Amino acid sequence: MKILHTSDWHLGRSLHGASLRDAFTLWTRHVTDTVRDLHIDALLIAGDIYDRAVPPSEMVTLLSRTLSELASLTTVIITSGNHDSPQRLGFGADLMREGIHIRTDARQCGNPVEVTAAGGERALIYPIPYLDPDVARHDLAAEEPLERSHEAVMRAALGLIRESIEAEEPAAGGPTPARIIMTHEFVSGAQESDSERDISVGGIGAIPASLFRLGEQEGIGPIDYVALGHIHSPQRIGAHTGAPLMRYSGSPIAFSFSETAPKQSVLLELSWGEANGVGPLEPVTEVANVDPLAEAPEPARAPAAVGPTGGAGAVETSGSGTAAPEPADEQPGRAGRPTVRTRLIPAPVWRPIATIRGSLAEILGPAHIADREKFVKVEVTDASRPREMNPLIRQAFPHALDVQHRPPAASHEKRIVDVKRENPLDVLKEFLIQAGGEEATKEELIILRQAVEASRGREQ
């Protein structure tokens, strides 16, 4: 059985104001192609499929067309995240076509979605939507509201799953079904980036990985895999906590310049008994940039991109090249449970991103010609701010999204100034030296004197 774990699509999001419309189109085509080419039995989207509660209409259209195509290929299971609106995302969920399951109600956590592979193997998927403590502490309470914390509401949701598992009837002649939890939460030990929204309550937002053992004191418990969403950097967590195998798939697109790891989805492979061998996988492919709303023939596909690559001084989140799915983790089967293997499938790259640091001359020089068509963040390190810095950089880098002057730290000691006792002009002159690294020019001194005199005139 093969299950594709994704999360945090954030359809409609931008990068420092730049549209990512074509990147979302490329990603949705990649997902559809992957599901078709690898014969995926279920696609998981663990929260934040949209970036905000009211998404742009073109993103609604893009998702609608994508789900329509996916429904003919596999089972799709979607949960709401902290960016989605559970009410809007869940509206009409019961009317969705067969094969599409949207879960936004925390009270349904104990009701799994059953997935059956062509060979008869089964998996029970337990979708947990994002649990806002202010809401879920009432929804999941037996009587009195639960404690206002992420851990308390998650413990209650997992309790519903535990009850469901205990009520299961033994498998009649077939293998025991795999059990998978998908949820959108911050689990202790995860490494954040700059693009996640803080979900902490009272300064505490993390839940311990050990909760997913469902109360078992020995072993990893009855869960075979936990498909996590919310953190945008792909990573495995909980490896030394006794918890079941659990991973963040990460977002498929970089939404900040801090996301330096290559983007990917997680291919989950489940096998029972002697059929545990997993053969090599074909490289996953991407499609050319196309208008997501246009009716057009299927474009030619090229090998998927995987990073990092790039010029000197650049910190890449993604680049170009080819790669087959990368082996990641394995959890051996136990007492009738399936063996769980994961592989990392590189996400396609629409436009690479990079952070470039150096003097203006270095940045505009030949070392960074390869970065000219990337989304870039530029940090200029000249001691004083170069004249025409922004126009020169934006002319050379048409997709520069963030340009900053970051001079070396001043070597002289900073001091606290009592502006009421010292000459305001002297204070301003010292500030220019500390902030810009140079003394004020004659022209700047004239402007400063005029500003000080005008200020004194208003005070009188």
Automatic annotation (TrEMBL):
The keyword Nuclease is annotated on this UniProt entry: yes
Gene Ontology BP annotations: DNA recombination; DNA replication
Alphabetic keyword roster: DNA recombination, DNA replication, Endonuclease, Exonuclease, Hydrolase, Nuclease
Biased composition (Low complexity): 298-307
Any Pfam family the entry gives: SbcD_C
The keyword Nuclease belongs to this UniProt entry's keyword annotation: yes
Role this protein plays: SbcCD cleaves DNA hairpin structures. These structures can inhibit DNA replication and are intermediates in certain DNA recombination reactions. The complex acts as a 3'->5' double strand exonuclease that can open hairpins. It also has a 5' single-strand endonuclease activity.
Xref: PANTHER family: COMPONENT OF ATP-DEPENDENT DSDNA EXONUCLEASE, NUCLEASE SBCCD SUBUNIT D
Name assigned to this protein: Nuclease SbcCD subunit D
Organism name: Actinobaculum massiliense ACS-171-V-Col2
Taxonomic lineage from the root: Bacteria, Bacillati, Actinomycetota, Actinomycetes, Actinomycetales
Name of the gene this protein is made from: sbcD
